[in-house]
Amino acid sequence: MFQFDRKLILTLAAVILMLGIAVIRKAAPDEETNKVVNQARTNTTQQAQSTQSPASQPANFHAPDAAQAEIKLDEKILTFTSQEELDLFLEKIAAADQSKIRLIGVVDKLLSARVRFISIDELKKVAGDAKQDANYLVTPPPMPPAGEIQPDALGFGQDYLSWLGIEGDNSSWGSGVTVAVLDSGLSYHPAIGDNVQRIAIMPLTEGSTEHQHGTAVSSIIVGQSEITPGIAPAAELMSLRVANENGLSTAYHIAEGIITAVDSGADIINISMGTYGDSDILANAVDYAASNDVLIVAASGNNGLDHAAYPAAYPSVTSVGAIDANAQHLLFSNSDPSLDFVAPGYQLNAAWSTDKLIPFTGTSAAAPVLTSIIAATMSLYQVDAFQAQEIVSSYANDGGLAGPNEQYGNGIPAMDRVLNGNQAGRYDPAVSGYAVVEQGAANTPSLIQVNIQNRGTETLINTPISINAAGNERIVNITSLAPGEVFSYEAQVLTPADGTYLPITTTIADPEIDARLDNNSLSANILINQLEE
To answer: Which GO molecular-function terms appear in the entry (predicted)?
Structure first.
């Protein structure tokens, strides 16, 4: 029996593990080169070996302050322009004073090395012309505090599949698709089972267990329970633990995880983690995935900023923001001009620990929703991940301001449209959302854009809608609306004097034939930021 614990909190204080510098016995340069380099590569290889040992207890994580990216102060990532330069560096560091500088790891395919040092002079001696980057800390996006979620936000619970237009049996969705989840690992959970390939990139402290963030993310993709349903339950899950027991990772470990996932046969990589620091090793790993036709989907971040975290901010990565069950952009969800999609990200039922469930909130939840929709589309259409993403994008539901925008990207994935996009005779008018397009001072007019989308396959003719804003009702008729197109109406409203939310409801008169009646009405409370008089 699952225990639903709504008091579990996903964010607590950070515990940053300060690792001491081990002294390696001095030896002749050639012997030392081989020993140091081989040991670094062995560490990398051993950490990437599959393991089947499950864990069950939750730990805590802390996300980086959005104002500045956190780094490991005693580490650098060195990136070289050629294999010859990397080999020369490896010879130099093997001969260096190991009490002052130490090689921690090498990613040959990225021509990069991770070093820990206490002497900047020693670093200069061995680094040569290598590009030096900080090793940025990477964490799951922080759980947003209550003040950063609008008061009328509506949760999904276990209903996110039906909300996405998934009805009936989806047990075969994702078949033949390998989805890699780069996160904190995966504990055994009855909603997921143990038919998972586990790869450990980041070691855990002896006696500790995985943080449960990765378990929650994975359950959205391959969950087998009615109350934690997976969207692509037949997908092959590859769980790569790139974070420690506190949910803390680094750019180096994320990059190493990407390389390992690609080389292990992943079709899609989900990363519900991020940092606000850009680095060559992470950018190069993302490029490696793209060059091998592996799609990366990543969370945009939960800091309410106007730009996404990395790796979501990279152009070749598919970035995902979060909405609630009213299709509202959640205030904590990072916006970005290059945002690709938004997806359900508020209080989704998700697995946690050995037998618990949590209401999972954030872009961390939204990313695996999109990942699994792409995986499902791959199996249904027998296409690759990039082609599947194009299909999902072409049938995405509009949201917020009409057309692609920085809060909704290209829209909201809709599996009913993916499944029925070629079905003639399908009628589906929908209220797609609202946006403030002109704001006034208190007690002066503001303009709210009201949007209606034709989500069917036939042109809509003479469709009446009712718009009620703060008790003021108006009737508007849409004479014609082609499939996929959006009709926008700008409703003039009086800006509230007290800064409260303005209630608005739009209703489409029910047509005789309608594929989905549940999207014919939408109510929202809109906060209009008043202009100074």
So the answer is: serine-type endopeptidase activity
